[in-house]
Amino acid sequence: MEASEESHLPNYMKDDNVSQETKNLIASLPSDKDFMGYGLYNYKGCWYYPNTLQAVLDVQKHFKPRDTDIILASLPKGGTTWLKSLVFAVVHREKYRENPQTHPLLSQNPHDLVPFLEIELYANSQVPDLTKFPSPMIFSTHIHLQALREATTKASSPCKIVYVCRGIKDTFVSGWHYRNMLHRTKMDQATFELMFDAYCRGVLLYGPYWEHVLSYWKGSLEDKENVLFMKYEEIIKEPRIQVKRLAEFLNCPFTAEEEECGSVEEILKLCSLRNLSNLEVNKKGTTRIGLDSQIFFRKGEVGDWKNHLTPQMAKTVDEIIECRLRDMSISGAVLSGLDPSFLISGGKRSGVGGGAIRVIGRKNVIISPQRKKSWVSAAVKGAGNSTNDPKWLDDASQKASEYVKEKGSEVGNVSSQKGQELQNQMERAKDYIFGKAGEAMDSVAENAKRASEYVTEKGKEAKEETVSRTDKAKDFIVEKAGDIKDTATDMRNKTSKYVGDKATEAKEAILPPKTDA
Length: 517
Description:
Blueprint: H1 20-27, E1 31-33, E2 39-43, E3 46-48, H2 50-62, E4 70-73, H3 80-91, H4 110-113, H5 117-121, E5 138-141, H6 145-152, E6 160-165, H7 168-182, H8 189-201, H9 209-222, E7 227-231, H10 232-237, H11 239-249, H12 256-260, H13 263-271, H14 273-278, H15 280-283, H16 311-324, H17 332-335, E8 344-346, E9 357-359, E10 366-367, H18 369-383, H19 392-417, H20 419-510
Parallel strand pairs: 4-5, 4-6, 6-7
Antiparallel strand pairs: 1-2, 2-3, 8-9, 9-10
């Protein structure tokens, strides 16, 4: 299907704005089709529509961010709209503190306030002059981190990158509804299954899903100062904590006064999906990239996939994610939409038992339940213990966070200082184990020999004892047989005499007595 023939489709899905150089490149790339039949091309491990690939190449060639700029990254339908709203509100909160009714989020769609790099700014072979934008400027992208870094590494200093990850099942379902609205139709179950199959194969714009997520996950571990990995499910579960974490990462943390006057709560209320979706600006009209404003707002719920996927579909996704992420610290359960807690993983799945936790990003650092408890206890003591103070819990949490960071740094320093000592200890342990193994083998051989001799000796004794007992039994039987024979003979004689006596008595009783003639 020729994407250019459908005028209602967004430009990024079309193939009508591609340079000859890019056309030559596309001709050499692996190709496939999405579930609707539109051509996709695999460039350096990611799938793109032709116009999108052209824009990505232009971003890599021309985009040069300032160190004050912020880039928001995500997969399509992975929490992009919400992240744009939150970051814009956090960064610009001071400007609209006195006149909140003039806040841009009340009159403009979040996608118009935070422009896409490849979908808007560098689309249609444009090369915008970004120096005219105020600082800090917030940009958005769906580009894989490795592809994005071909542009960001040209900057003299790195900019901040915030990535939001959403469970794959909910991302898929949200994408399904988006494509229905995009194509202005209600697609049938057969088409739903085609899209599901393509998703599982990774053949989707910017996919595969797991490669995209892992690129930013690894990036956040390698450069935690400049890459923040956030989880959609955690923002839903603990919005206040996550927004404060976001502000700290962007070097604009909330002051104690701001927290006390409810600044965090005001931002969360303004940026709630319910509030944004009910604004007139997001119900009508179109965005600058030509899409209906309302297309970006639906439920935003966690677990809505249960209303769309069959149990077998859900199982298939779980198995794919488990297979793809088996060797990674990241948990497949999170990406399949089962459990949002995977930055710190515990239990048998992570290979750490007894309730211990593994701190991701620090190799070989295991915190036992006892040590974890002592860290928190020390931090809470530092914050005081007055439960009558409503700020006590927040203060304790802050102290705990600072204490853990401090201890984490200490662990890192100790690890580097003790590296050689640990290696020496391992060598000594290896020698000790080999030595003990040799001794154990000698001991086993000696014990085996002794056991063999013992068994042989005892076997001989048992044989002799058996023969002796057999002879004694034989003599006993012969002796008893003789006794029985003598007894039987005696009994026979006595019986014969008894019978003879009785016969004589009977005879005398029957016959008359003898008389003299």
